[in-house]
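Review form for a predicted model. The reviewer records the input and the model, then writes brief findings.
Reviewer: anonymous (R2)
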Amino acid sequence: MWLEILLWFFIILTVYIYVGYPVLLKIVAKFVNKPVKSNSNYLPKVTLFIAAYNEEKVIEYKLKNSVGLDYPKDLLEIIVVSDDSSDRTNEIVQKFEGKYPNIRLHVVKGRKGKTEALNKSVPIATGEILVFSDANSMYDKDALMHLIPHFADEEIGGVCGELKLLNSGGSAIGESEGAYWKYEKFLKEMETKTGTAIVANGSIYALRKELFQPMNPNVGDDMQNPLIIIRQGKRFVYEPLAITREETSSESKEEFGRKVRIVTRSFTGIMHYRKLLNPFMNFDFFYKYMSHKFLRWLVPYYLILILLINIFLLDQPLYQVLLGLQIAFYGLAFLGKWIKSKITYIPYYFCLVNYAALLGTLRAISGKRQATWKPTQR
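Model under review:
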């Protein structure tokens, strides 16, 4: 009986994380609605940070994209934060410096990693609002005009935009990644509607410079900054009309490595900011972060336990069927690496993400740190 209770506990917990939490948010949103105020006439000085390490293939396109944004040129400062790039990235940026007075190159020597490079760059910013972007993220022309006006509301400390993934190569991993981001978009919308969102996307988010605090170099900036904002009693919200676009990765191996790195850094981060997970201090943040992130990182452990416990219950027909369903699901996931179909690539992506979560959490718990990064071939 105890084995059955444990088995169904982990099954229900897994279903809650992927299905129950979104449904719960939707229900709560019917009773709790905190609107995001906006003023299109609010145009403060903005500093756009572009994090770059060996981005010679895309940095020219990114700078052309940035100078073409619909935001007053005298109110937009663009700083390329080069993490000691060893290719032609710095040379290309310097050419733009000579042509555009609002573009600056800031080289951080000794390759510190993206987060520490940003720590060292924020003090030189002159903008009231800081916008963070990646070199391979191309903003829609009106992205800043949708992102910035929310800061007219003093309750707003940070705003996250919308990442749209382009899968021009038609890869299965790209299709799966796109479906995942649609799911994340819904969660951010509901979290914002009910109070505050709890995660950002490193390609497009902004915060008040006065609220910036030095970050842990071993943790992603887009994971930490929302927590820092919320810790100061401000809201972090999502704006779906502030759009940036990126190509998805066409290689499963590359995407897998990126996800392992993200989970390693994020799990390290929540251990660093664990005091925020006090339900008596901020229950809204607690249940959102536990449901959206922390418990999801532990799903691979639930799946392993479900499979193992199921094996000990095979004397009952119900559990014979349940084991058969698990074997069929993992079989489809195995085929998903080679066969492009929704029936296969969704199980494949699900298993890929959870295997990455397993390795990432184990690395974080064992004390492994990963401050530096390499650009993905998107």
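Findings: The first strand starts at residue 46 and ends at 52.
Further findings: The mean pLDDT is 91.
Recommendation: see findings above.
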